[in-house]
Specification:
- The protein is of the alpha/beta class.
- The protein has one domain: Aldolase class I (TIM Barrel), CATH 3.20.20.70.
- Helix content is 36%, strand content 16%.
- It is built from 15 helices and 16 strands.
- It has an 8-stranded parallel barrel with strand order 6-7-8-9-10-11-12-13, surrounded by 5 helices. It has a two-stranded antiparallel ribbon with strand order 1-2.
- α1 packs parallel to α4.
């Protein structure tokens, strides 16, 4: 419901993860009997998690490790992986400088030309390990890299920018025609990012197999501060899930909605699914894995922009292996490890056997959910109060 914010101007109230909570179900379930798997096209993923297409998170080795654990790592074709024969050397330069120098360093590193043979080489290396391969590019590069990735064996292609719409206008370049591009690719195409019902519906009508939901919530993203643009993730996810369900009733074709960014711990991830997500894309949590190429450093995809960076380099540290972060055992008390354990335990608590049933969990507005009774954690900065 919209509220008046001034003379003849109304604004809709939107919600983020800290403002809601899930209500326990009338019937509870043994978490071991919950099935959180995600079916996408003809593929089934044991873990409904995508690792973000960020250079500090996913390289070839990380994508392989993620695939073997039942998730999906998305490799960024616009980053260092397709610009340098040895991307690890470029990343080492980026993470060694101090914060004041980092923006200049990353801008210079990302000016190197993208080499098409490296696109194919990275895809082939992932497929050689017999795991699903997903790669990402911005819309302007999709028609150039898409066919190369497809011929090399990619299973999923992701077209991703800060905000992506089915109707983009420009006099300076030819916008991608998503309907034509998706038909040409002949493999599932995920498009992002979007945050509104109408945006999502038009992208589904263009043929998207999945949509990434979120503008500016990522830990390393500064879009909301630089541009003032964004919608809190709870509202964005609910709106896109509504568009998905309407589109399914209308056409019989199911399009996965994937909440991307803004989830700090297992609790946020569980809320994302309850709000309607079919899978989640996570960056900072996986940047903390020992397998992550950033060695505990994390930076956003829009950070290298030559004139208006919308990101920063942050240090998240290294807390454990990728397997620990996904499946435990957890050695931290802040919900950043054993994310699958958190998800299945939440499903058991609300009585959901599948993700589709979790999407029906009761949600309440609860702005005190993060602080009620937590005075000692706040004072000592442990548990839920750890930043």
């Amino acid at each position: 419901m919209a509220e008046w914010i001034g003379t003849e101007r109304r604004a809709r109230r939107c919600y983020g993860f800290d403002e809601i909570a899930l209500v326990p179900g009338l019937v509870t379930l043994d978490p071991r009997e919950a099935d959180p798997s995600w079916r996408f096209g003809d593929m089934t993923f044991r873990a409904p998690f995508l690792a973000s297409a960020m250079d500090g998170v996913v390289d070839v080795d990380f994508a392989i490790a993620m695939g073997k654990l039942g998730g999906l790592g998305v490799l960024n074709l616009d980053g260092v992986q397709a610009r340098y024969d040895d991307p690890a050397e470029a990343i080492a330069q980026l993470i060694q400088g101090d914060v004041a120098e980092a923006t200049d360093v990353v801008q210079k590193l990302y000016k190197a030309p993208i080499k098409e043979h490296l696109v194919a080489k990275r895809v082939e290396a992932i497929k050689k390990a017999k795991v699903p391969c997903a790669v990402s590019s911005i819309p302007q590069n999709a028609e150039r890299f898409g066919p190369i990735a497809r011929e090399a064996g990619a299973d999923i292609f992701v077209v991703q920018s800060t905000v992506t719409t089915a109707r983009h206008e420009s006099k300076g370049y030819k916008p991608v025609d998503f309907t034509r591009f998706i038909k040409m690719m002949k493999l599932p195409v995920i498009i992002g990012n979007c945050v509104t019902y109408d945006q999502g519906l038009e992208l589904m009508e263009a043929g998207a197999a999945g949509l990434l939901v979120g503008v500016g919530p990522g830990a390393a993203c500064t879009t909301r501060g630089v541009l003032g643009v964004g919608v809190p993730q709870v509202t964005a996810t609910v709106d896109l899930a509504a568009a998905r369900d309407f589109f399914y009733k209308k056409t019989g074709r199911y399009v996965s909605t994937i909440t991307d960014g803004g989830m700090r711990n297992g609790g946020d991830i569980c809320k994302a699914f309850a709000c309607g997500s079919d899978a989640v894309m996570v960056g900072s949590a996986f940047a903390r894995a020992t397998e992550a190429p950033g060695k505990g450093y994390h930076w956003g995809m829009a950070y290298p922009h030559s004139s208006l960076p919308r990101g920063t380099r942050i240090y998240v540290g290294t807390s454990g292996t990728l397997e620990q972060i996904l499946f435990g055992p957890a050695v931290t008390d802040d919900g950043s490890q054993n994310l699958m354990g958190a998800l299945t335990t939440c499903m058991g608590t609300v009585g959901a056997r599948t993700i589709k049933e979790l999407q029906l969990a009761e949600i309440i507005i609860a702005p005190s959910i993060q602080t009620e009774g937590k005075i000692f954690q706040q004072v000592q900065r442990v548990g839920m109060a750890r930043k």
